[in-house]
Each structure stands twice: as structure tokens, then as C-alpha cells.
Specification:
The chain has 139 residues and is an alpha/beta fold. It has a domain of 80 residues: Ribosomal protein L13 (Ribosomal Protein L13p, Chain: A, Alpha-Beta Complex). 29% of the residues lie in helices and 17% in strands. The strands form two sheets. A three-stranded parallel sheet has the order 1-2-5, covered by helices on one side. Strands 3-4 form a two-stranded antiparallel ribbon. α1 packs across α4. It starts with 14 loop residues before the first strand and ends in a 15-residue tail after the last strand. The model has no long low-confidence stretch (mean pLDDT 93).
Amino acid sequence: MKTTETKKQDLNYNWYLLDASTKSVGRIATEAASILLGKHKVNYSPTLNTGDKVVIINSKKLVLTGKKVTDKMYYRHSGYAGGLKERNAEYYLNMNPNFIIQTAVSGMLPSNRLAKIRMANLYIYEGSEHPHQGQINAK
């Protein structure tokens, strides 16, 4: 019995459609991160981008459970003394709901050289319309 190694030319990518209005943020993010990693495939390899492409729709109707809308904070720092900025999830729900999903998914992916490439396979849209109708055939 021989072990076969996955090669770049053997890879093929499918498209998955996830609806953010039906599940909470964490559930959507874990499902998207798993698909982006390619853990559901037989030829999974941690050193190659074996994951598929994910389209998330209806991010405007995002579901946050508990008191996360007011209590969950997002931080960023300018690099200068006293430059810490903080905003709660309610601000991003009104201004840019895609940011919440994007940070949740990127936090679930490993921080390595493939992280940027895998995040480029994630497409998030506020409404139910998206330009990838022809590619999506799975899930």
C-alpha cells in the first residue's frame, strides 16, 4: 500500500454558499473556516491550499447571540501611545457587517503563509445577490 502525496495540479476547487441569516456568527465562521482549510476533503494537506471557495450572503441580517451586540468589543491600535481604539459589535453591524464575519473566520484559520491565500477564497455579501451564481453547485 502506497501513500500518495497531493500535488498542486491534482487540486480542484468547489464553491459553497452559506447564509448568515440562518445561523449565529460562530456557527457560520466555523463552517467557513473548515471549508477554507479543506479538512472535509480526502486529499487534505496542511502545506497546500486544498480548501474550497466560500460565498457568505445576507451578512446584513447577521445573528449575534446573548449580549454580544453591546458587550463584544473590537480593538485596534495605531502604534502610538494612547492609540487604542475600541468599537462594539453594534457599530460594525450598522457600518460594515462583513467585518464581523471576516474577523471571526480569520481568527479560526492558522496564522501561517497560507492564511492570506485562504482568506482570498472567502467572499462576503450584505444582500442575497452575488456575482458567483454560475460557479456555485455545492451545498
